[in-house]
Design brief:
- The complex is a heterodimer.
- Chain A has a domain at 75-229.
- Chain A contains 5 helices and 10 strands, in the order H-H-E-E-E-E-E-H-E-E-E-E-H-H-E.
- Chain A has helices at residues 6-50, 63-74, 148-152, 190-205, 208-215; strands spanning 75-81, 86-93, 99-108, 113-120, 127-134, 160-161, 164-165, 169-171, 182-184, 226-229.
- Chain A has a 6-stranded antiparallel sheet. Chain A has a two-stranded antiparallel ribbon with strand order 6-7. A two-stranded parallel ribbon of chain A has the order 8-9.
- In chain A, helix 1 packs across helix 2.
- Chain B is mainly α.
- Helices cover 64% and strands 2% of the residues of chain B.
- Chain B has helices at 4-7, 23-28, 33-57, 66-88, 90-104, 107-115, 122-152, 182-199, and strands spanning 154-155, 158-159.
- Chain B is globular and about 70 Å long.
- The chains are: A alpha+beta, B mainly alpha.
- Chains A and B meet through helix 1 of A and helix 4 and helix 5 of B.
């Protein structure tokens, strides 16, 4: 058979593309539910990690059920309705009865999205814990934001400095150890580090009004902030 | 089957240091040893199987669109593997997600398919794919070892340099920041090629 024939070439290409497309579509269709579940579970695990829960899930006989039950036990999802946006907030009740307020943060790294969860203590100032993750930062450089070494630095830092919202600064060349709002950047991962800094500022900024009302219910905020509790199992 | 197909790509005819293919990813993933190992494994698997598929199809592929056919096969394999990992081994897939794009564009894969799979039977093609993947892996591991050791003071994430040696803890030692940056990967690959050429005199140009 002459494989250099035009008709043959066109037919070959057509059949190949159809077969490949069908295979990929089939794989995507069959695996979608499982993938979705994995993503949801991952989110729940990250939220729990920001308040230092679920760290032992690898040893649990069934990791998925363990995470689900831990999540249902501790975390309540809330929605903050503002005039032009709806904010998500996760409220965690620790075993000690103490409440933690977990804020989801989103931003853009060097190659793709970066995101994380910041758990604030009930003074709405001190950070209890954080987790960060990324879609496609460079392994060994920007991707280091997902390591516990990086996120641990944020513990105990304060987002207000002298009563003003300054967020947390990710400092290249070493943070001042005495400072309450500086952490070390990642060497070789400056753009991703700066992305974390920007993400924290921009995401937390939206919650300030809510904090003001929540910290002192008698002081009315300038605009109407309505808190509507949502059940976890929606 | 010739033993050479397996032995030669490991060192004597290494895809990175002799054929100088796949340099781009060798620079990108060698800051730490762990991603380098994961990348080497992924490339080895994808290369082995795509060579088999192309080798099976080799007598039917129209010559004028053969590169497109190869690309489609490689891309399909990588996406399928990625989809399965996302569904059944989510943690592994998270580590691999960065590499998926890099695997498809790895010149070793296209290079070996063009040079070997198109003209050989499936079994030798499979062996050639695995051997070239391993040869690529050897370079990655050597480069990543030095970069992680000198750049971060760790191996596979475990600290090797005692903490009290560091200047910030009152010692005399500091990690070399240059090793973390991409140029150092190129210098290390260059050094590897230098060593290899001194051993294998036949590689030297007159």
């Amino acid at each position: 058979m002459d494989t250099n024939n035009n008709t043959y070439t066109v037919i070959y290409a057509t059949i190949m593309v159809v077969i490949v497309a069908a295979l990929l579509a089939l794989a995507s269709y069959l695996l979608k539910d499982r993938q979705q579940r994995n993503v949801e579970l991952e989110t729940k695990q990250q939220i729990l990690k920001s308040v230092k829960l679920g760290g032992d899930s690898e040893n649990a006989p069934d990791k998925a059920t363990y995470i689900e039950s831990l999540y249902a036990k501790h975390i309540v999802e809330e929605k903050i309705e503002k005039e032009d946006e709806t904010l998500k907030l996760y409220i965690c009740t620790m075993d000690s009865g103490e409440k933690m307020y977990i804020i989801p943060v989103h931003g853009t790294g060097l190659w793709g999205p970066v995101w994380g969860y910041v758990a604030l203590k009930s003074d709405f100032n001190t950070i209890y814990g954080t987790t960060y993750d990324h879609k496609s930062e460079t392994p060994g450089l920007g991707a280091e934001i997902a390591t516990p070494e990086f996120s641990k630095q944020f513990e105990g830092k304060q987002i207000f400095t002298n009563g003003v919202f300054k967020s947390i600064l990710v400092v290249k060349g070493g943070a001042d150890p005495a400072s309450t709002n500086q952490v070390d950047a990642i060497s070789g991962g400056t753009i991703t580090s700066k992305a974390v800094e920007e993400m924290l500022f921009k995401s937390i900024e939206h919650y300030l009004e809510y904090f003001k009302v929540a910290a002192d219910p008698t002081a009315k905020a300038d605009s109407t902030v309505v808190l509507t509790p949502n059940s976890v199992n929606q | 089957m010739d033993k050479k197909i397996f032995i030669e790509p490991l060192f004597k005819n290494n895809p990175v240091s002799v054929l100088v293919l796949g340099i781009c990813s060798a620079l990108a993933v060698t800051v730490k040893l762990e991603p380098a190992l994961v990348m080497a494994l992924s490339v080895t698997i994808v290369l082995g199987f795509s060579e088999v598929i192309i080798s099976l199809l080799r007598n039917t592929i129209p010559n004028r669109i053969r590169i497109i056919v190869q690309l489609v096969v490689v891309a399909m394999l990588v996406i399928l593997v990625d989809q399965f990992l996302k569904a059944f081994a989510y943690d592994v897939s998270k580590q691999l997600s960065v590499f998926v794009g890099l695997i498809i564009t790895n010149c070793i894969i296209m290079g070996r398919i063009e040079a070997f799979a198109l003209g050989n039977k499936p079994l030798p093609a499979f062996v050639d794919g695995i051997a070239n993947g391993l040869g690529y892996g050897i370079i990655l591991v050597v480069v990543a070892f030095f970069r992680e050791f000198f750049g971060s003071g760790t191996i596979l994430g475990y600290p090797i340099i005692p903490a009290e040696w560091y200047i910030k803890n009152g010692g005399f030692y500091e990690n070399n920041g240059l090793f973390i940056l991409p140029p150092m990967a190129l210098i290390l690959v260059g050094a590897f090629i230098w060593v290899q050429r001194s051993i294998q005199k036949e590689l030297q140009e007159k």
